[in-house]
Design brief:
Shape: globular
Number of strands: 0
Radius of gyration: 16 Å
Largest sheet: none
Helix content: over 70%
Structural class: mainly alpha
Order of helices and strands: HHHHHH
Strand content: under 5%
Oligomer: single chain
Number of helices: 6
Length: 133
């Protein structure tokens, strides 16, 4: 197997696993919008109506599906990267205190952020299992 083929497989694995990871969170906004309301109150210091949770869930689900298909890479990969960056930054307090339970769980977002950065940087190389133009 060539290095290029290994790269293609690795990027596809990253895209699909990251996409599925985010799809769980996006769908949660649709099936349990009250959880999103609590998250916004705790980490974004704002109260949102349930309708906003549904709206965010729909938009995020669409972006994730486009991302999973490998379409509009600069926009879809970039949108997911920016959304997750804000999510990680909003949890800086638990990240700075990882040994107080359950704060260590917030650290799971850090390698995901790293993978998104790498995938964004290599987006033109990500061709396996993508919708071709």
């Amino acid at each position: 197997m060539t290095d290029q083929r290994r790269l293609q497989i690795a990027l596809a694995v990253m895209r699909i696993s990251i996409g599925l990871f985010f799809l769980v969170w996006a769908i949660e906004k649709l099936v349990a919008p009250e959880v999103t309301q609590r998250v916004f109150k705790a980490f974004y210091f704002s109260e949102i109506p349930i309708a906003v949770s549904y709206g965010i869930g729909i938009v995020q689900t669409l972006i994730i599906l486009v991302f999973l298909a490998g379409l509009f890479k600069t926009v879809s990969y970039g949108a997911l990267l920016v959304m997750h960056l804000f999510s990680v930054l909003s949890t800086y307090e638990p990240l700075l205190n990882p040994y107080e339970p359950p704060n260590h769980l917030f650290w799971a977002g850090v390698p995901v952020l790293g993978a998104l950065i790498a995938l964004f940087m290599l987006r033109d190389q990500d061709q396996l299992l993508t919708v071709k133009k």
